[in-house]
Amino acid sequence: xxxxxxxxxxxxxxxxxxxxxxxxxxxxxxxxxxxxxxxxxxxxxxxxxxxxxxxxxxxxxxxxxxxxxxxxxxxxxxxxxxxxxxxxxxxxxxxxxxxxxxxxxxxxxxxxxxxxxxxxxxxxxxxxxxxxxxxxxxxxxxxxxxxxxxxxxxxxxxxxxxxxxxxxxxxxxxxxxxxxxxxxxxxxxxxxxxxxxxxxxxxxxxxxxxxxxxxxxxxxxxxxxxxxxxxxxxxxxxxxxxxxxxxxxxxxxxxxxxxxxxxxxxxxxxxxxxxxxxxxxxxxxxxxxxxxxxxxxxxxxxxxxxxxxxxxxxxxxxxx
Length: 320
Hints:
Blueprint: H1 17-20, H2 34-64, H3 81-87, H4 92-120, H5 128-136, H6 143-154, H7 160-167, H8 181-209, H9 213-221, H10 226-237, H11 239-254, H12 258-263, H13 275-284, H14 289-315
Helix pairs in contact: 2-14, 3-14, 4-8, 4-11, 5-8, 8-11, 11-14, 13-14
């Protein structure tokens, strides 16, 4: 009598030769894949950028090439008349010169003071945290609110500054802080320095704290003076932070609007009109969106070139 032995059922270890090298099939659904999840995470940001940046930018580009009064709408293409009209405007070149002058003065004074404040509160000593907070507090105030505050302080009739100077005997008559082009420029620069010095100090302070203490100790051991340490160690290692603050300061100064609109209204005698104020005048006082858009495109192109150069310097700041 012959007994048949049942063959064992095929298991996962006994695969056909063709199936041994075949990769396992993905069981997760497609929407759970990494690519789909990445697209889902990026979709809200992409929609936001498209709706609030790309579409308005395209609309401004269309306006710059069209005859587009504010109250009448698009009347058709008139390129390049908007660009020639705005560059031939009486206030265009004075506004460009004043904006560049203001940017240069603010950048030098603001970054110099911010670096000095950062060096003063760099070390962890008693009271350093208090002074860091005090220096940074003005940055928490909005620029429009700060401009209104200083407009009240600068007022020769109701402001306290003129009365204090008269009480100290320094002046005989009320002081007009915004009555001349030079006074208006310096008064506005003082406002901006007061407002943003603490913010840039914080950025530079973070850069200073990233410098290893061992480097300073080695330099002191070799007999280096404070000036040599500052020139040869602090400044080179602080280049990334300095480049970032320079980028922010130059961009913000070239786009200055709130402080001059509130403090000076472009006066006296249109001596403090910035480029962004000129855009506002073209759009909402002369009611010409075409020339305003053309000037906006010019400003955008200049900012892109400057930022590209500054980003290049920021990217290579860590290189020896």
